[in-house]
């Protein structure tokens, strides 16, 4: 199978709104069906396969026969039948082994029966499970999309541009790792929840970036991934409405996604924030994201997703790049830098310093981190940007060239190369 | 992260003769090694694509100025040793893992099962940019 064939296997042009709503119903019911079946059989891994088969059956049968009166009950019944058939076909000894090794409800650490058996908690349990710290993001992301998001292996493979058998193996290896970790199908104990929630937020954040980073041109199919990330973040927020970092992450996604229509040109080329046509930003998303982050920030000491969302909100409310509340952004980056110690945040802060206090101040800040970051392409890109602001086109061009050589991102490479070329040509027009 | 693992028709690290001079059993073992490696990469969820390319004898080189008739040169080319022989495209968690796969592929068996030490070029595939850009 060639990569070209794989990437073509995405959305069919003949999709109608009826098919779409059946699809979104299935995706919404998937975690509930899985929760019910995993509980009944005490075997998450097998239940996950059975529900996936039930979803595929529903996708072909419901459009033909009509949606059943109780669609969730239908999915659970079909998945449970597959489980029973599968157990029956295995010999008794093997069955005992499977059950003994599987995730059982009868763990001593389990909650009181009935305490957490509603749909919201099932979604939450599934998220904790699929984003288990024993899994790398590369396997947690597809497993989450399948088990919680209700996507088919084919859809996930197509979104990540890998062949379906490769993706199927990635998911089944992830489940084998989980099974080996012996995680029971319940909420993690309270003392572990904060740490486990951080893993869930990180996985959703990476999933969003995966889609957002490639939201146009030849990578169009992948833009669905940020939509899925937003849907999953909404589900998580519905389960934990009072958690400020969950709210912060959802707000960050909405406030970032709001700029999507303005972010790329007709040829898929990157348009930096400074040059985006702000009338094309999605006002409804900005309003929703801003109200979410405002509420979360009132709850006390903000975490990193809230700080990032707050920065995004300040950008989204500005009428232009120059009129942005740079002092406010500068102070937010300062807090984010102290909180995370991430040197990439320092680079962003240098841009904010330059905008608030002039390019010389930004360049001085960069000099301080050159030893640590001097070989990173983004260091050169930021330095190029600040040198350009300072009017030193020749030095800026050299920095943009160094950044273009170092990046592993195609559109970024195009952007940086074009930037270097226009500065070298002496066309150093002032930027935004 | 995606990496292209490229191998050329060029000298290998061991001093083994060209494949046409190997025994049929050695050739079979070599091909089986490649198939087993590909299966293993599928099972690990890492293989995107793997292809061998037709030899330099069948290669054609095309040059065009966009207006006139393109100039087509038939192979073999004098520098045929530098031509691409095949590739694996893998999707892995780290660059280190790509190196590991390349090392495995480099040690493919030659005559008598001795690793041929095929040089494998590891090249990262450019991806889409981060959202902060």
Which descriptors apply to this entry?
A: 432 residues, mainly alpha, disordered N terminus, disordered C terminus, B: 133 residues, alpha+beta, 4-stranded antiparallel β-sheet, two-stranded antiparallel sheet, 2 helices, 6 strands, globular
Mean pLDDT of chain A: 85
Q: What is the CA-based Rg of chain B, rounded?
A: 18 Å
How many angstroms does the end-to-end distance of chain B come to? 18 Å
Distance between the termini of chain A: 46 Å
Helix-and-strand structural type of chain B: alpha+beta
Q: Helical segment tally of chain A?
A: 21
| Total individual domains of chain B | 1
A few lines on this structure:
Chain A is mainly alpha-helical and 432 residues long.
Characterise the protein shown here.
The complex is a heterodimer of chains A (432) and B (133). Chain A has 432 residues and is mostly helical. In chain A, helix 2 (17-41) packs across helix 6 (119-130) and helix 20 packs antiparallel against helix 21. Helix content of chain A is 70%, strand content 0%. Chain A has helices spanning 3-8, 17-41, 44-65, 71-89, 92-101, 119-130, 137-147, 153-159, 164-181, 190-212, 224-239, 244-257, 260-263, 283-297, 304-317, 326-340, 343-357, 359-373, 377-389, 393-406, 410-424. Residues 1-17, 103-117 and 428-432 of chain A have low confidence and may be disordered. The mean pLDDT of chain B is 87. With 133 residues, chain B is α+β, with helices and mostly antiparallel strands. Chain B is globular. Chain B has a single domain (2-124), classed as Alpha-Beta Plaits. The longest helix of chain B is centred in the N-terminal third of the chain and has 20 residues, at 24-43. In chain B, the strands form two sheets. Chain B has a four-stranded antiparallel beta sheet with strand order 2-5-1-6, with helices on one face. A two-stranded antiparallel sheet of chain B has the order 3-4. Chain B has helices spanning 24-43, 95-106; strands at 2-8, 47-52, 60-63, 71-74, 84-91, 121-124. Chain B contains two helices and six strands.
